[in-house]
Amino acid sequence: MLSGVQKGLREDNCVTIAGFGTFEVKARKARIGRNPHTGEPIRIEAGRRVGFRMGKALRESV
Fold first, then answer.
1. Do residues 38 and 29 make contact, with C-beta atoms less than 8 angstroms apart?
2. C-alpha R_g of the chain
3. Taking CA atoms, which of 11, 20, 38, 51 is between 20 and 30 Å from 58?
């Protein structure tokens, strides 16, 4: 199942599992963050991440 989700995200950028939820690839812009130890500003590169939205059935069961 996991390899199927990975393949779907790689090829389609979105995977929906009925009754469970939707995984979707989202782009993040480059930004400035802070090093929590020193407080020094650091540049965080742009990248991609996976977001998840719960389906109705899962949301109601939780």
1. no
2. 16
3. 11
